[in-house]
């Protein structure tokens, strides 16, 4: 029997198509599982893998960026700024000359012709030779507590500035103060109202002899602790129980060239007095103790001590230094 046309077509199609691939046998246990679990990895595992790879790439980018920035910072040169230019000082004593610092490239004649003051100031230019500066001396003292403007107008530059007018230099205070009993370990401090020495040369100023006298004469050195404060440091101590006089004489000049008016100051160091003396009933063999507020000279003090009986009869005595015992915290022991 010959095949029908439909059967022939089916046979041709089957012959033209390649054979289907063989499907491997799936174990019975796996066939019972979900196909997604048995054949493909779960989607959450793929996400974790992508996240790890992304974090690693981000870390590499951050490290590379940090290295690049650090290299750029290390290679960037530090800018060097010039010292700030100041036309006039911040403060000037009312009787002092006005020193005006000139910008680079401006000569003195051009500067003098182009400088004006507000309020107006009458005076004349000084012939002092100061590098890169001109000096103007007012005819009358300036007004204290007032700001003055200075304008420099030349073809090369236009600059302005201002200064405050302060009182003329003087001694404003001295310590130890009047009426106090100064300890012999004190220093003598003199305070001025205006700068007396440059800040940059405080140590160099200590080599200069100052017109200051101290009575009674006391060994020590003067030291500038600031541009306005001068201190006398005794070599050992001040002389106990003494009347001191400190005199600032003529020749003391401030930083702006003005003389200091003479000044005298007095104070006293601790007067000698006893802080304790034996009294009341005592054993006949007990010593009489007198305790002073400072060390005393035995020879001169001995002649000033007298002991009498009740009948006004003097008693022979032997005066000696006593012993004091105290606790030394540094060594942790008692010291006599």
What does this structure look like?
The structure is a single chain. This protein is α+β, with helices and mostly antiparallel strands and about 325 residues long. The chain has 3 domains: about 90-165, Immunoglobulin-like (Sandwich), CATH 2.60.40; about 170-270, Immunoglobulin-like, CATH 2.60.40; about 275-335, no CATH class. Helices cover about 20% and strands about 30% of the residues. It has helices at about 5-15, 30, 35-40, 45-75, 110-115, 200-205, 300, and strands spanning about 90-95, 100, 115-120, 125, 135-140, 145-155, 160-165, 170-175, 180, 190, 210-215, 220-225, 230-235, 245-250, 265-270, 275, 290, 305-310, 315, 325-330, 335. It has a 4-stranded mixed sheet. A 4-stranded antiparallel sheet has the order 8-10-13-12. The longest helix has about 35 residues, at about 45-75. The termini are far apart. Mean pLDDT is about 80; it is low at about 1-15, about 30-40 and about 80.
Q: How many individual helices?
A: 7
For the largest beta sheet, what order do the strands appear in spatially?
1-7-6-3
Name of the level-1 CATH class of the largest domain: Mainly Beta
**Beta fraction of the residues?**
25-35%
* Total strand segments: 21
Rounded mean pLDDT score: 82
CATH architecture of the largest domain: Sandwich
* CATH fold title of the largest domain: Immunoglobulin-like
Structural class: alpha+beta
In whole angstroms, the N-to-C terminal distance is 147 Å
* Rounded Rg: 49 Å
The biggest sheet, with number of strands, parallel, antiparallel or mixed sense and barrel status, is: 4 strands, mixed
The gross shape turns out to be: flat
Number of domain units: 3
Poorly predicted segments? 1-16, 29-42, 78-82
N-to-C order of helices and strands? HHHHEEHEEEEEEEEHEEEEEEEHEEEE
